[in-house]
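Q: A reviewer asked whether we had any structural model of the full assembly, not just the individual parts. We don't, so I'm hoping you can provide one. Inputs are below.
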Amino acid sequence: MCVAPIGKILQIKGTQAICDFEGVQKEISLMLLPTAQSGDYVAIHAGYAVQLVQDYKKLLQEMVVRNVLGEQMLVKIEEENKKLAGQEIRIMNFCGTHEYSIVKYGLRDLLPNNIKLVAGPGCPVCVVPSQEIVTALKLLEQEEIILTTYGDMFRVPTPYGSLKEAKAEGKDVRIVYGIDEAVKIAQKTDKQVVHLAIGFETTAPTTASALLQITESNNFSLLSSHRTSLPVMEYVLKNNIMQGVICPGHVAAVVGEQAFAGVVDKFHLPLVISGFEPLDVLETVSLILEQINKGEAKLENQYVRVVAEKGNQVAREAMEKVFTTEDAVWRGFPLLANSRLVLKEEYACFDALKKFSFTEVEDKEIKKNACLCGKVLQGKHPKECALFAQTCSPENPQGPCMVSQEGPCFIAYQYQ
Amino acid sequence: MKITLSHGAGGAQTQKLIAQLLNVIENRQVNGGVGLDHLDDSATIPYQGGNIVFTTDGHTVDPLFFPGGDIGRLAVAGTVNDLTMMGSQPLALSLALVIEEGLDSTCLEKIFLSINEACKEAGVAIIAGDTKVVEKGAVDKLIITTAGIGVTDKVIQDNGMQEGDKIIITGEIGNHGIALLSQREGYSFQTSLQSDVAPLNKLLEPIWSYRIHAAKDPTRGGIAMVLNEMAEKSGFNIVLQEDAIPLNPEVRGACEMLGLDPFTLANEGKAVIAVHPEDAEQVLACLRKHPYGEKAVICGEAREKATAPKVIVQTCLGRRIVRPPLGEIVPRIC
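A: Here is a predicted structure for the entire assembly that you could use as a starting point for your response.
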């Protein structure tokens, strides 16, 4: 669900650290990982360190011999697959970054034909329903604000246009790398800055932490489209037949391994928390096949170098302090209980809707097109959508699955 | 339709927009030379047994001075490179300035010193120009528009790639894109990377005697854009070896950090060349003798004819298709 590149901490300055990415240096926040030390390798999401990375050296060595290990892994998958005798195995991933890795390294091509890797609703951009973007667009129209958001959100189409088009019309829409950059913009201006926050449990703590650090501000507020990942995972597994799940590694890094135990109990499926290197994904697939062959259904953690059993407690506490959950509609999904993170009453001063006495646009006010993105995110083939390759193309996307390079529609479009 | 920044980002949308606009123009070509229909790097006019090569280019960059260069060097290099990619010898440039009221004159002087240096390096002259000053806010600081003229006996076109041709890239990709991005509000970071902005005519001069079938400079839209253009215009699939493509570790680091694809990042001093396979090694050796070509590599080849030609990248494990980028380069979190 979340990109979390690994950087090395070079220097710590209070709650900030200078982090190195192969020679490029960026200042990041340690608020969610206060125990990090200089020299540590950390996974970083939206400008915040979210978890320590163990054995990074070992990972680097593995990458050098990636070809050999990759082949070994494929042999193992092949062996496990023989025992399946051609049975179709559908394995769903719930993280955009897993899908990114699968696409970037062309992993689908490498697997036996009966093993299907299915992209689930793991992209926080794809699952935000139109009305939440339209709310931002209408707010931009009504108020003289600066709207900040993440790059992914910029092109997502709605019946009322996209944020990108709003910018072209002269609205002040700015892309930020993390929420801290948005707060900095607010510190330098008298204008009202509204941050459209999206993301799952990896991103939500960064939002929470930023708000907790603001002591004095009357020009920064939030539209929260944050979501929690378990309700949608349970919904999809209840309504679709899958034989295994690749669990989102960076969400797990925050919520902890155990958060997914309930899913295994409910659905009796192999669930494997996975890293994002292509080898991680291949190993995860082989672990799932192994479980299937043994008739097991358990939670395994392939991503032990980042995911601890209890996750990141500091991050979880920040999130719990600031946010509460409410029932929410997702794009293409019905109302899912407790699936949206909204600000608690104590933090209502940061709620953009309250600040501008603005009501969120409702689902029923949105003109619907025939876009099936919601169904596609549950495993339906994009070709079953009437818009696919007709009015909907990467140049002119009608839904989010055609926007993102890892969107199932975008991928299907290229291979058609 | 409202024009958005994506229409100027050099990707598929830019192409679509200009194709639409150019439809209006009826006189599109002179003496059977390369004209508007080809949308090549430059146009040609067959003349007295040879060819005049002609191009024009508008330059705008924020900030005006960036690590490794400035708008002046960019304007000269960009124009020289467009002429060079046709196989021509660039001769002269014109310069038209649109200056925003309030710009510091020392800033212009610095830019002109840099223009002079770049012209000397490329061996071209500035022989015409124009200056306009507009009200504050009418443009952002400075726009430089150039025209360039060169000559050649043999014209190298984008559509010339043939089956079996080797693909050469003359050095590390994405350095310019990352050097510029590091200066941007909202996601600033520190890097020692410099823009690669440079005129390439001297680098490529020695290779024109070989069987070069196509050459392009991967500016906006990066190698993803130019490889797709070469594939589409020639009708052949291109297969690349990802591991062979030269990538500075800092570009890789920045791309990891921001979730970007180095294939889509801009370059201002690189060429992508399709060459007859028998000449590839010699061309490579020639390129590597020049400082701008030290890291040149053979990284792919033109394969079979296809109705919808694709650029396919062989990764360390599998393969993927590279599409022309869509719109601006923005960092991602998911």
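A: Points you may want to mention in the reply: Residues 8 and 20 of chain A are 5 Å apart (CA to CA). Chain A touches chain B through 61 residues (CB under 8 Å).
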